[in-house]
Structure formats: structure tokens, C-alpha cells
Amino acid sequence: MKNRLLTLLAAVLFAVVALAGPQSKPPAPKSPAPSQAAPPPTSPFDRALLTPASLNAKAPDTFDVKFVTTKGEFVVHVTRDWAPNGADRFYNLVKHHYFDGVAFFRVLRTPRPFMAQCGFSPYPEVNTAWMSAYIKDDPVKQSNKRGMVTYAALPTANGRSTQIFINYADNSFLDQSRFAPFGEVVSGMEVVDQFYGGYGDGPPEGRGPSQDMLSKQGQVYLSKNFPNLDSIKTARIVTTPAPATPKSPGN
Q1: Pairing state of beta strands 148-151 and 73-79?
Q2: How far apart are CA 76 and CA 74, in angstroms?
Q3: Span 31-50, average pLDDT
Q4: Residue of 112, 120, 122 whose CA lies nearest to 167
């Protein structure tokens, strides 16, 4: 009797298990997803420009810079021996794309052709970084003739930073005031001649941009108040091809 009861209980248990079917495993816990932190925003300028003291590479003996502007292209050939401090500063600025977006804010043609000046960054934080990053004066070895490229400077000694100008005419009277050319426009001077100069000089002499406001507000200030100014799209160092080796007679 006892054995029959055990057999019956076993049969019932087997039937219950069969009806229930195979038991599914509990779902495995999911691993937490890795953090999807947003990437830092891309800077509109080379961040190295915020540390002027670190941009101190020595320039080659000679090099060319191609400027692409809103009026066309021109090329500046730099000779380091003319003004070593100025050439080195210019080389580092171009190498780190400082001049991209920079406007020719001071273009003076009256009462006589004078010059086209640029050098304030479109970005106020970059202007702040370079505000007192001056270089020492160079001896004046070349004259400020038409097409020569020179730094604007403070009236005091050793006051050059990022402001450069292209001479429209023979401005040799500047030579005695420490304005040392470091390069020359070798092609595209006709493009430089076309830069917009309708605003004239800055205050108080004219109605052009205030350098103080341009430094503090950058491109926002120019776009709102001086929309006709021409600007630099890009400025890049270009490789100058080596002169061809003259062939020997009979080759």
C-alpha cells in the first residue's frame, strides 16, 4: 500500500513538471552603458594662439605666404635677414592660422596712397592674449617702398605685436621711425590695391573702425558697423620651388 502511494505521488509530480514546461532562466543583468559624454566643442581658432610665448619657432631664411582674400590672392615673400624678429613672429602667426578671418580695417588712399593695415583677430580672446606680446625692434635694412610689408607699432621702442601693413606707395619717410620691412608682395599687388578704403582712418581722424572696439569685440563689431571691409580668408606658408640646376654643355 505504501509503495503504491509513493508511485502515485511520483506520477502526479512528473505530470505537474511536464505541464509547466522548461523553466526559462532569469534575464541576465545588463551592464551599465559607458558614459556618452559630449565631445568638447571645436574651437574656431588654433588654441595655441592663446599662449603667444610658446610660438617662438625660428623662421626659414626665406619663405612665401599665400593670402586668399575677399578680393583675390596675393603672395608675400619674406626674407628673414631683413628683420629677423619680425619674420619669426610673422612665421609663427601664419603657421598657426592667426590671419584667417582678419580684416583690412585701415585702408588709406587719400589724400595720397598710403597703406592697407590688418592684424586684429576676429576673436576677442585671441586679441587679449596678444595685447602685450611685443617683439624687439629690428634695424631698418629695407625701405618702405610700394609693396613692402611692415609691422605697425607703438610710438615707443619694441612695440610690435600682430599688426602689419602693406605700403601702397613710396613711404620711405617711415624708415627713420623704426618701421622695418620684413617681406614684399611679389604677386597680386593689384589685388591689394582693390581693398575697400571707403571708411578712411579710425577715430578721431576718420570714420573707420576703432582699434579699441575691434580688439574687444572682434568680427562682431566689424560685421555690424563696417560690412564693406575686405578680409583674409586664409594665409598659408607655401613651398617655394628650388631654382632649376643649369645644365652642363652637352647634356
Answers
A1: unpaired
A2: 7
A3: 73
A4: 112
Instruction: Give yes or no for a contact between 120 and 93, defined as CB atoms under 8 angstroms apart.
Output: no
**What's 15's DSSP letter?**
H
Q: How far apart are CA 223 and CA 225, in angstroms?
A: 6
Q: Is 18 helix (H, G, I), strand (E, B) or coil?
A: helix
If 0-12 CB within 10 Å is exposed, 13-18 middle and 19+ buried, where does residue 129 land? middle
Q: What is the mean pLDDT of residues 216-221?
A: 98
Question: Is the model's pLDDT at 66 over the cut of 70?
Answer: yes
Q: In whole angstroms, how far apart are CA 216 and each of 47, 222, 230?
A: 18, 11, 20
194 CB-contact burial (10 Å; exposed 0-12 / middle 13-18 / buried 19+): middle
Query: What is the C-alpha to C-alpha distance for residues 241 and 251, in angstroms, rounded to an integer?
Result: 22
Cell of 82: 631683413
Confidence of residue 239 (pLDDT cuts 50, 70, 90): confident
CB distance 181 to 144 below 8 Å: yes
Note the pLDDT of residue 30. 52
Give the integer Cα–Cα distance in Å for 55 and 189.
Answer: 29
CA-wise closest residue to 65 among 241, 229, 243, 234: 234
Q: By three-state DSSP, how is residue 64 classified?
A: strand
Residues 6+ apart with CB under 8 A from 26: none
Whether 178 and 140 have beta carbons less than 8 Å apart is answered as yes
DSSP state of 231: B
- List beta partners, residue 148: 184
Preceding peptide of 139 cis, ω within 30°: no
Compute how many other C-beta atoms are within 10 angstroms of the C-beta atom of residue 240.
12
